[in-house]
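Database export, one record per block. Field names are fixed; values are copied verbatim from the stored entry.
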Amino acid sequence: MFAVLAEAKTLEELQRIEPKVREVRRRYLYGLNGATAGELAIHRRVSRLNYSRRCAEASAVQAHMKQGLPMAPGMEIAYVVKDAKKWEVDPARTVSEFDTGYYWGLLEKAWEEAAFVFNRLKGCSLAQ
């Protein structure tokens, strides 16, 4: 959705692409159950190797290290969340399952941000 939003350079273009953004949301929302785990990989640049709290990135660093993959701050990793309640993740290259609820929630958060843009447009006058 954000890649489509980034295509717009003017308010008029934003208004024109709203149906395209809605279609992207619909396609991913209804296609999530048919997605492969690899398609849902989250890519992050690792800022550190030790974390004081539990989070997906901390679990991803541990999962990569457990598989013997070298890790250092600044490296990019790709991982998939298997169980968000337990912060269980797998490196994207070895993952076989994913937490559908977690990814559905990410999709909804992204939609809320995109919808905010369109709702703001409805209150703007393009003549300004």
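Remark 1: The chain has four helices and three strands.
Remark 2: The CA atoms of residues 19 and 75 lie 37 Å apart.
End of record.
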